[in-house]
From TrEMBL:
It comes from the Bacteria. The chain crosses the membrane at residues 12-32, 38-62, 74-93, 113-133, 145-164. This is Rod shape-determining protein MreD. The keyword Transmembrane applies. Keywords: Membrane, Transmembrane, Transmembrane helix.
Amino acid sequence: MGPVIFWNSIRFVLAVLAQVLICNHIDFLGYINPLVYIYFIFLFPLNANRSTFLIIAFLLGLTVDMFSDTGGAHAFACTVIAYIRPFVLRFAFGVSYEHQSVKLENTATGQRLVYIIILTVIHHFFFFLLEIFNISSILIILRNTAFFSIFTILIIALSITLFSRKNS
């Protein structure tokens, strides 16, 4: 169990550092930043204790909140996608998820994209819903969700492709 905790701790720190030091300073088209730290939640081991996973997802979001001054929006959005991840995994991977044999880099591209798209869009929607916190601004919330999601999905899909080629 020691190496799993060690490598997940390294991933946690790298996800926060990548978000805070690099991605928060990217302003594509003047306002779009990729929120790539959620990649940590996508890759978290499936057989981990669910309560522990929810706490870690909350702490990941809270850590990014502290550096981004977003008042808990990241923490809430991360907790939401950590909570619904088993349902999305079951939807995207079906029987493979039931047998706990899903490895993101080894799955079909379509299944992988469905998984990433669903969780990213849900995360971004809840994040902007809380950040803007004004239902009369629903069009801005939906616009930001769409544009930030597209940019984040492209970055995450590209990183999966690049890193899986190195391994093979």
